[in-house]
Amino acid sequence: MNKANSAWSTLIGLNDGLSGLLNYLQPVALLAARLYVAWVFFASGLTKIDDWETTLFLFELEYEVPLLSPVVAAWLGTAGELIFPVLLAFGLFGRVGALGLSAVNVVAVLSFSEMAPAAFNLHVIWGLLLAVVALWGAGKISVDTFLSARK
Q1: How far apart are CA 125 and CA 27, in angstroms?
Q2: Cystine design at 84: which of 13, 32, 38, 101 (Cβ 3.0–4.6 Å)?
Q3: 3-class SS string, the chain
Q4: Is residue 1 part of a domain?
Q5: What is the mean pLDDT of the chain?
Q6: How many separate domains does the chain show?
Q7: Residue ranges making up the domain that contains 31
């Protein structure tokens, strides 16, 4: 029984060491997730303002945004893709940025009737990363943490 306790103690010690290392990496992982998702949506917003006529065309004929006119949907979608990623990237009101982009993400999935499975899977991944930030916050490497420390 003594050897079993020793082996168990060794496993617990290894687990604690691994947990400590992973806890140390959490802020970097949250920053990487924030920057990745922010870039995806910000780049999409830049594409929309780069060719506004095509954007309006797509919102009128391709995307089926419920309850909104195509022009209003185009403006709101583009604004969301340009504002929320900046908040998310800097971790300034990071949860607001994550929730805002989550709404943009859900509307994008619902409004595009013929989405390829691979594209849908990307939206799921982005949604999961945004859920992590919304639930746990932007992390230690964020403006939110800096501002909270100054209170």
Answers
A1: 19
A2: 101
A3: CHHHHHHHHHHHHHHHHHHHHHHHHHHHHHHHHHHHHHHHHHHHHHHHHHCHHHHHHHHHHCECCCCCCHHHHHHHHHHHHHHHHHHHHHCCCHHHHHHHHHHHHHHHHHHECCCCHHHHHHHHHHHHHHHHHHHHCCCCCCHHHHHHHCC
A4: no
A5: 94
A6: 1
A7: 27-149
Tell me whether residue 68 is exposed, middle or buried, using C-beta atoms within 10 angstroms of its C-beta: 0 to 12, 13 to 18, 19 or more.
middle
Residue 81 has pLDDT above 90, yes or no: yes
Band (91; pLDDT cuts 50, 70, 90):
very high
pLDDT value of residue 64: 86
**Residue 12 domain flag:** no
35: tokens are 């920057």
For residue range 98-135, list pLDDT tens digits in order.
999 999 999 999 998 789 999 999 999 999 999 999 99
Residue percentage of the chain with pLDDT more than 90: 85
137: its two tokens: 């916050």
